[in-house]
Amino acid sequence: MDNTIRTELEEELRELPVIQYAWVAKAEIPFSEKVRTICKEECPRYGKSWACPPGVGTVGECRAICDEFEGAFVFTTVAEVQDIMNMEETLATRDGHEEVTREIRDLFRKRSFRTLAMSGDSCAICPECAYPAGPCRHPDRMIPCIEGFGIVVPLLAQRAGIAFENGGGVVTWFGLILYGR
Q1: Cα–Cα distance between 84 and 79 in angstroms, integer?
Q2: Rounded distance, CA 32 to CA 38, Å?
Q3: CA–CA separation, 139 vs 15, rounded Å?
Q4: For residue 44, how many other CB atoms are within 10 A of its CB?
């Protein structure tokens, strides 16, 4: 991506509630099967969504999809909550981050980039996902989970120089936009 486009994007990002961001080389995106173990053992959405494993494919297939793009943009948004351990309260802040993720994806698309947007949680557009009986009802809006692709978010954050946590009572949401021509 040339510097003019990058500068334009960064100007527009100032209008959004993005806390930190970084441009990341594809080679810096860490993948691990271990992330999938956590998904399988701890996430109630595992096997129930096109945005999560196994619906998104194997870690190898996800890595191959990511390799089709020329670069990556990682960013965070934050939301304050009364009780960080209250999962219902924490997840209630997800929609704002998902909207920002779509807006950033659209900034890239406006400049004729192909994109793959990912977010820090499973898609929740539909009350019940069509997976596995039918295709995704909203493929244009669905944003898969970063971890579901086997990406190690704490290591990605470290490599990008982005804080993984932002203090007590603050939910830090991560987004990842892969882009290419």
Answers
A1: 10
A2: 11
A3: 26
A4: 9
What are the backbone dihedrals phi and psi of residue 118, each rounded to the nearest 5 degrees, phi first? -130, 155
Sheet holding 114-119, edge to edge: 20-24, 71-80, 170-180, 114-119
- Tell me: pLDDT of 85 over 90: no
Q: What is the pLDDT of residues 126-154, one digit of tens each?
A: 999 999 999 999 998 899 999 999 999 99
- Output the DSSP codes for the chain: --HHHHHHHHHHHTTTT--EEEEE-GGG--B-HHHHHHHHHH-TTTTS-TTSTTTT--HHHHHHHHHTSSEEEEEEEEEE-S-TT-HHHHHTTHHHHHHHHHHHHHHHHHTT-EEEEEESS---SSSS--TTTS--S-TTT---BTGGGTB-HHHHHHHHT--S---TTEEEEEEEEEEE-
Structure tokens that stand for 88 in this block: 């219902």
Helix axes 3-13, 94-110, angle to 10 degrees: 150
Closest CA to 39 of 178, 152, 143, 115: 152
**Structure confidence by residue, pLDDT tens digits, 45-75:** 899 999 999 999 999 999 999 999 999 999 9
